[in-house]
Amino acid sequence: MIDGVDPQIIQDLGRELNSPQLALRFLTDFLAMLPPRFTRIQTAVAAQDREDAMDAVLSLKITAAMTGASEIEASCLALQASIKNEDFAVAQVQTRQLGDIVARLNQAARPFSTM
């Protein structure tokens, strides 16, 4: 599968949906939307827009959990706490760290996206 994504989560989702293909499509969509979702977080944190940053982080955190991207989920959880506390200096650092994780996952997913 893809380094950074728990294959068991995708298999479980496929069973829950009664469609492994639908679960793989969900993963593919998650990976395709990852760069724009990260950009939205980055922009909102830079603007110190608490509402938009929180909305973007929660959205990414939930879909990361659903796809088994636990490192992204954990990073979003930490970022969520900083945004909630309006600690945007820390949130900036955490956003850069999240960007590194997103870049690694995108790199790992490249062969998968050409299938």
UniProtKB/TrEMBL annotation:
Pfam families reported in the protein's UniProt record: Hpt (PF01627)
PROSITE patterns linked to this entry: HPT
Positions in coiled-coil regions: none
Domain HPt as annotated: residue spans: 19-115
Protein name (Swiss-Prot/TrEMBL): HPt domain-containing protein
Source organism per UniProt: Arthrobacter liuii
Source taxonomy: Bacteria, Bacillati, Actinomycetota, Actinomycetes, Micrococcales
